[in-house]
Amino acid sequence: MFKNLKTLVKIFTFALITIVVGGIFIKLKYNQIIETPNSDSSEKVTIVINEGQAVDIIIEELIDAGVIKESWETYLKTYLKLNDLSSKIQAGTYNLPLNLNIIELIESLQHADSQDIWVTLPEGLRKDEIADILQKELLTYDTVDFSTTEFLSLTTNLEYISQFGFSEEVTNLEGYIFPDKYAFSIESTTKSVLTKMVTSFVTKIGTSDTYEDIIIASMVEREGYNSTDRAIIADIIQRRYSEGWLLQIDATLLYPVKDWKHVITQADKDSQNPYNTYKQLGLVPTPICNPGLEAINAVRNPQPNNYYYYIHEDDGTPHYSTTLNEHNTNVNQYLR
């Protein structure tokens, strides 16, 4: 009898552990799905929700439009039920990007009369490129008051910059306009738009990184291709800088030209300007773009190595070298 009881206890314990572990797995999977962007594309589609339309029909239309993956239907319905949100979806016409996650999507569908303007800003853009994207996206709404001239002027306005808590070295917000997916109000102004993006930097990155760190992160952003590559390049740049080498970073040559696709010539490398790291020792005066979290983390946690040089093939495959002779061999083998 006692032996049978022990067996039952073991079975019950095993079953309980299985249920708990399974529940934890399901919860983790659910949390991951509802926070994952539906797509990498920021393309927008128009969704019309009619008055009194059933939630199941709305979900079918969202799936058909590509706003939500069909395999995520159950997670979407669970999210709506757990948070009692089905009744809060409003009838109206929505312009929705394909890269929303479930949380962002349902939040958007609750504000038909004052829906947000979704704008995705990728990593590695200059502030003038960001201003151009914002102008294109925001000025399709008559209620938005946005000016690229005012935007760029604010990025060097010392009184405006001082509110964010950066060090006194930061006299230009290039590097601090955080690349992200934003929902802007249809009554946005130039200042409110820029403030939201810089505040996002402060919230997600903080203010403890030095100005030099952000400058290097901007170089890493433009020079690297993935997290592993960026961590190695960050170590190379930091070491060359600390040892007094010329950095010789091609991306810095492109910053004054304002064209990332510009074909670098010998004249570019011979030019006398503060962003020419083939001629000027040390760092450039400002970040050359606005880096993302991955590039900043690479500078915070570089991958130690013995390399001093690197190149990338057209497909992004990296080749590192410790000596100039090795570097020249890589250049001849992979870039010519």
Radius of gyration: 25 Å
Strand order in space, largest sheet: 1-2
By DSSP, the count of extended strands is 6
Q: Which sequence of SSEs, written as H and E, runs from N to C?
A: HEHHEHEHHHEHHHHHHEEH
User: Could you tell me how far the N terminus lies from the C terminus, measured between alpha carbons in angstroms?
Assistant: 82 Å
Could you describe the largest sheet, including whether it forms a barrel?
Answer: 2 strands, antiparallel
Specify the number of helices. 14
The number of distinct structural domains comes to 3
Mean pLDDT: 90
Which structural category fits the helices and strands?
A: mainly alpha
**Unreliable sequence segments:** none
Q: Quote the beta fraction.
A: 5-15%
- Fraction of residues in H or I helices: 40-55%
Anisotropy-based shape? globular
Give a concise summary:
The chain has 336 residues and is mostly helical.
